[in-house]
Amino acid sequence: MSGVLSAQPEVILKELGRLWTSVGEDEHSKGKPSVLRACAMTLIVATDTEDTDAFEATQTVISLMQSHPSRAIFLRRSPDAENGISARVLAQCWMPFGKAQQICCEQVEIDATGERWIEVGPTLRGIIVPDLPVVVWCRQRSLLWGKSLKGTPGWDTILPLATKVIADTADASAAGAAPLRQALDTISLWQTDDRAAGDLEWTRLTPWREAIAEAFDDPQLLAQRESFHSVEIATASHAPSSAALYLFGWLAGRLNLTPTFTAVESGTSGLARVALRGSGTSLVLERNSPECMRLTIGDRSHSFSMQPPSLFNLMHEELTVLGRDDEFRAALARAREVPGA
Amino acid sequence: MVDSMSAANPFEDPLRFERRAPPCAVVIFGANGDLTKRKLLPALYRLSYERRIPQTFAIIGNSRTEMSDDDFRAKMKESVQQFLEDAPFDESVWESFVRGLYYTPGDLNDSACYQAIAAKLADVDKQHQTAGNVLFYLSTQPSYYSSVVQQLGQHGLNHGSGWRRVIIEKPFGHDLASARQLNSEIHTVFDESQIYRIDHYLGKETVQNILAFRFGNGIFEPLWNRGYVNSVQITAAESIGVEGRGAYYQEAGALRDMIQNHLMQVMATVAMEPPTVYDADSVRDERAKLLRAIRILKPDEVPVRAVAGQYGPANVGGKALLGFRQEPGVNPVAQTDTYAAVTFYIDNWRWAGVPFYVRSGKRLPKRITDIAINFNAPPLSLFRQDTKSGLMAPRPNLLILRIQPEEGISLRFLSKSPGSGMKVRPVSMDFNYGSSFGERSPTAYETLLVDALTGDATLYTRQDMVEASWQVVEPILESWAAQKFEFPNYDSGTWGPRASDEMLARNGHTWRVP
Q: Could you tell me how many CB contacts below 8 A there are between chain A and chain B?
C-alpha cells in the first residue's frame, strides 16, 4: 500500500505504475511468474461518514473483484481527510485455486472533506480506466434523498462519468413515504439513454420475481393468466416499501391489473406475501421465515429455501447488467405513479 | 411428433434470470454407467442447486441391474459427491433433488421394461406435475440406440400430452453407412426436431466463445480468410492412454473417436460463415455447409494428407508406461490409430488453399486442446532477421484459441525490444477466461442439458452434419483399413510420429508446440 498521496491524477497513476513494478519484482524474486493484472471496469464507491456499513461495502468490492475485476476507487467524504483531499493506492491480489499465477486488481482510496469534494470529479476523470464501463455505487444517502439532496457540489461532475449508477433505497423506505418518493425520483433522473441506474431494492426482488416466473413455466397456469383478477402485495410495514412498489410496477405491467397493498403481522421485515387470484385459480408466494418461502398454486404447495441475498450477491447481479434494463425502467416508472408513494 | 415450442412466459426477465428448464421428466437409459455417474447426475444436481430445474422435475434411471429407488439414490449421491466439478455439495439441496429421483430396472430388449417406464412416467407426472414433458437420454452402448428408440415408438412413448425429446450420445454410427442407417431408424420414431445428438465439445464455454469472438467483434472477421490466414492448426492432445477402455478404443481409434466428431465440429465453428441470426437452424446450417465444403481425399492423397500413429512403451517422469498393444484388453497386433493427423482443405471462397491441420492423440506430452490461426507474414520484412547475431527470427502473428485446460485467447505479435536499435521480438497478449470471469463456468453437460430441456438445439449436431463429417473421414478410414502399419511409431510422451511432422514440412509448415 502506498503512503498518503496528493489526489492529482498523474500522481495516482504514477504510483499505480510503481505498485505494479514492485508487485512484479516481488514475485519474480521468489521465482514465481509475474502477476496477472485484470480489469473489466472502473468501480467507484461513493461513501460518507454516515455510511455505517462502509467496511462491509469495502469487503464486498474486494470479493467482487474475482468475478468483476476492476479498478476500484473508494471515495470517502470525510471531515478528517488529510490536506482536505488525499489518495492512497494498493493492489488486491489472489491466487486462483490450482494456479501458479496471482491475479491482481487496483484499489484507489480518495478522501475529501465536504469543501474539497468538488475536486473529486476532475481527479476521477484522470484515473478511470479508459474504454471500459464506469460503475458508480452511490452509498451517500445525501445524494439520494433528504434536505441536502440539492446541496452536494461535485456530484454533477462524477455522474456524467458513469455508465451505470447503483443505489439502495432501503433506507429511504424505512424513513417514510416522502424520502422514498424523493429517492425514486432521483434514480429516475440518473437514467439517460447512455446511463443505466440500478436499485438494490429491485435486485432483492429477483428471487421473488423468478419464483413467480418459474410458476408460469407450467403451461396450464400460463393459459389461465388472463383469468387473474386481483393482485395483493402484503408487507410487514404500513407504508409500501420500495421493493413493494417495484413489485407493484412489475406485476401491473405483466398482468394489466392494479395490485393492492396490505399490511400484515410478520416475523420478518419487508415483503411478506404476493397473491394472484383469479376465477378457479390462485398463486400465493409467501415468506414462511427469513430463509424459507412457500409457493401455493391452487391446492398444491411447496416450500423452498430462499436466503436473503447478501450484499455481495446483490452487487454481483447488478454488475452483470451494465446496459439498459427495460424491466427495471418500466417498474420504476410505474412505482412512481403509485398514489402516496 | 413435431416438437412444438411452448408459448412465451411473460414473466421472464432474461437479463436477470438464469435460463430454467420447464417442468419435465428425464429418463436415463444406462443409468448405472460411467457417464451417468460422472457427468449427467452431477450436472443435473448442479442445475438443481442453481434452481435452474424446477420443483416439477423428475429423473427416472434405467439399467439392467436390480436396484430399489433408495439404492439408486444412495449410489447417485456418492457419485455426485465424488464427481461434482468446482462446486460444493449441499445436503439440503440433495434432499429436495432426490425426492424426484427414481429407478426402474429392466432389460432394454424386453418390452416389459418400457411398460414399466411408461407406468413410472404416468406416476411421476401426477406426483411432480411434469406437464407430460419427457426427455429420453440414451447413455447406453451404441448398439442399443436403434432398438431403444424402436421400443419407445412401439410403446407410444414418443408422443404424449407434452413434448418428447431424445438425446443420443456419440458415436453416431461407425461409418457413413451405419450413421445413415441409424438416422433412418431413429426417424421412424422421432422427428429430427426431437433428436438431440450430443457432442459435448460444443457445450464447452470456450468453443461457444469462438462464435462470440468471431461474430461479436468487428476487427477479426475481416482477417478471417485466405487473404490473411496462412494455416490453421487444431490440436486435441491427451497425456493419458486408454485407461481401461482398450477393448472399446481399439475398435474406434483417434480419427473416429475425436476427429470425426469433436474436432470437425470445432473446425466448422472456426471456419463457418456468419449465420444471419443466432438460432439453432441458422447456426447449424452454416456448420453443415462448412462440413460439406471440406475436400474429400482421393485414395492416393490419403498417405500424403493423413497420418496414423500408435504409442509405444516409454519411461516418462520415472514411470514406465505401457505401449497401446500392451494395454489390458488390447490385441497385441492391433492396428488402431491412437494418434491421427489430417490436412484438410475447405473448398469455398473464404478458405480455398488454406490448410487446416487437425491432430489428436493419446499419450502426448500434455492434455491440451487449442486452435492456432497462423496469419501471413508481412509482405516486406523491415527489421533484422540475422539469427546468428542472437536476434530471433520474426514470426508471423498467431492467434491461439485455448479450449482446455487454460481457457482463453492469446495474440502473438512483434514488439520492439527495449533499448537502442530496432530489434523486435514476439510478445503475447493474453485473455484468460478464468481471470476475466472469475465465476464458475457451467460444465458442458450442464449447458447442453438445459439446452435440450428448453428446446434449443444450436449446440447439438444435426443429421446432415453427422453424415457430412463421416463422408470426409471415410476415405481415410478405408485406406487405413487396407494398410498394415508398422506400429508403434511414436513413444509415449512425445508429440506423435515423425510422419506427422513430415506432412506439414511438405507445405513448409511445422506443428507448433502447444
A: 79
